[in-house]
């Protein structure tokens, strides 16, 4: 398979129907990393048709659960076999460090194994007591049908696994469209699905832009479920098109996530060090290009000066560079567009009264290697307030804003003062306070004295404009199923409702 044959339809790798291609750039130096097919509506329609045939006429939806689970486990084993190769692909394509790429592959492996185990441990349905020995009533689960899966550029392989693994475990067929910016690891994943023995037509891949591929998937009449992870604007537009067609819809649309630090978390040297370290991790992992990034530091006023001073000192020492190089802690932003967007947020914050404590610029050529990449220095913006655009909007860059509070109620109010509701954290040395505040936060995931970990067995998703539906956990599997009630009369007899 040549790189430009990145479209996979009905078991065959192919180029785009109109011959279109796209260069995939290495964000570390802006050179061409690969050339992939640029699919369009014709490719999308062909992929959906293949998925439709495979679901309506193929064997996969009727394959015994044990066989589907076994295939998922084979995929997990293949992921570990190719761990270094995939981690390198992910690092080069997204700009993240090689170690982050390795962690992603391990997390993807765990997702496939989790959903394999989940379906294997289920019973044959939920028996419902109908109140009569003459009735057998059971609730069963069936696959939705053809699933359209849209994944983002920041965690392309990980987000693909959160959709592909439960979709296959439930017996669906699918068409997946990765971000046109970072498609390479998804191409590799589909190759592994084929190697693991997935029947032709079950997994289909179209590389291409959101317009027209993503929009066509959202509105296509033969798609039964539309699952999207990405930005609020494009996600709500595509989601509206999907809802108009009465599809099942799941949307994860990002977040503006608070990291609340109480003074009692810093009462000891160890506690202070931990809270500062976690604030750095929350904001600057993958250069802040994380939907759950703790970009809003909300710190108690009595410790704010000391806390921010130490935070700034450490942020200034973060080593930038190509993610595959030894010792690099932060890679580049994913694209020129994202770099310019980050610069725009900093400019607006400064114009609205924020104080720049560090960063706020592209590093000098002598400060980062290689030259020409989309690098931006880790940035801390102090004295921020809710009226600023940088506080209200998801920035997706290495930007950390600082707000302060004096009381617990004020901390909760600030943390919940966002249109989003994906994730948040509370750092406190008082267990009762930490749990009390966590219970009041309107976010889909809340960490206490930690930031960023997730579990495949625990649901992931947000409140408010962070989206609808959940991924991972039992509810993540339920998104890819329809629920059916089967009512069986064991002793049928005339009803005699009508006298004639």
From TrEMBL:
Pathway assigned to this chain's UniProt record:
Amine and polyamine biosynthesis; betaine biosynthesis via choline pathway; betaine from betaine aldehyde: step 1/1
Key words, A-Z: NAD, Oxidoreductase
Record-annotated active site: 252
- For whether the record's keyword set contains Membrane, the answer is no
Q: SUPFAM superfamilies, alphabetically?
A: ALDH-like
Gene3D superfamilies recorded for this chain? Answer: Aldehyde Dehydrogenase, Chain A, domain 1 (3.40.605.10), Aldehyde Dehydrogenase, Chain A, domain 2 (3.40.309.10)
Q: Which PROSITE patterns match?
A: ALDEHYDE_DEHYDR_CYS (PS00070), ALDEHYDE_DEHYDR_GLU (PS00687)
Q: Name one GO molecular function term.
A: oxidoreductase activity, acting on the aldehyde or oxo group of donors, NAD or NADP as acceptor
| InterPro entries (alphabetical) | Ald_DH/histidinol_DH, Ald_DH_C, Ald_DH_CS_CYS, Ald_DH_CS_GLU, Ald_DH_N, Aldehyde_DH_dom
Domain Aldehyde dehydrogenase: from-to ranges? 13-486
Family indicated by similarity: Belongs to the aldehyde dehydrogenase family.
Q: What name goes with this protein?
A: Aldehyde dehydrogenase family protein
